[in-house]
Amino acid sequence: MAQFSLAIHGGAGTIEKHRMKADLEQAYRHALADALLAGKNILMAGGSSVDAVVAAVVSMEDNPLFNAGRGSVLTHDEMVEMDAAVMNGKDLNAGALCGVRHIKNPIVLARDIMTGSSHVMLSGDGAEKFAFNEAGHVYTEQDYFFTERRYDQLLDAKSTGRAALSESTFPDDKKHG
Amino acid sequence: TVGAVALDASGNLAAATSTGGLTNKRYGRIGDTPIIGAGTYARNGNCAVSATGMGEVLLRCTVASDISGRMRYGNQSLKDACHNVVNGEIKGLGGECGVVAVDAEGQVHFSLNCPGMYRGTLDTHGEPLVAIYD
Lengths: 177, 134
Hints:
The structure holds 2 protein chains of 2 kinds.
Chain A: E1 5-14, H1 22-44, H2 49-61, E2 82-88, E3 93-100, H3 106-116, E4 121-123, H4 124-134, H5 148-160, E5 174-176
Parallel strand pairs in A: 3-4
Antiparallel strand pairs in A: 1-5, 2-3
Chain B: E1 2-7, E2 13-19, E3 40-43, E4 47-53, H1 55-60, H2 63-74, H3 78-86, H4 89-92, E5 97-103, E6 108-112, E7 116-122, E8 128-133
Antiparallel strand pairs in B: 1-2, 3-4, 4-5, 5-6, 7-8
């Protein structure tokens, strides 16, 4: 087998074992394993490290458990606002975006910015215009990203004026960013 | 926040990070994730890093490029560079965070200064190995 390596994360912070329900913990473990397998399959087939990290991140963006893509937390205005970046160590090429609201997989757009534009970072509406007009992305309604769990977290944060997950009352989610 | 780092069979390193930011955020706030050198960085022959945590502190400490620089100019190992950054200035500034990183030889390292990080890598047989708590 060719030599390759892969590692992933799904967020860090105060994650309390004694308050984490067993089924939720299992769901997280399965989701992490799925993301690893998505990247591993590409590397095993001789694919690039860029394709592998994008595949692993897409897997987590599609899972509402994680704060990215579908499971993104809500802003004060009850919207999602997502950021992403990818970098290729081979040529130091990089692609990044911030503040997008209608992109299903921001990490794929980051790769498209890296490979399909002469820029490194695009923001907000401009990033979305590039996505729809030049990179073939499909407009994704905010409804796709809405989950009761994130809405409850927002209400919890608003009730005390907080703007971070660090003091959340949700046992699996006292994490940052 | 989610992220990944990889070394492929051709020896190329890559890093990717994606996030929904902070609950209840306002004013178009942006953290470290999309900033090259803060939350995301990769350079062949050196390392690939993806970070997660308190974005404002990670930005101020340019975490990913600091790890890279310690290896490039200070000859620190990946493990030492990650440990020194995550448990150094950042911690002093009150920042909780974690990083995943891989070096040019394919060695993977996780470093965190908080009680948990959802994380995973492949074991020596290529099977998923996942962890959550410190």
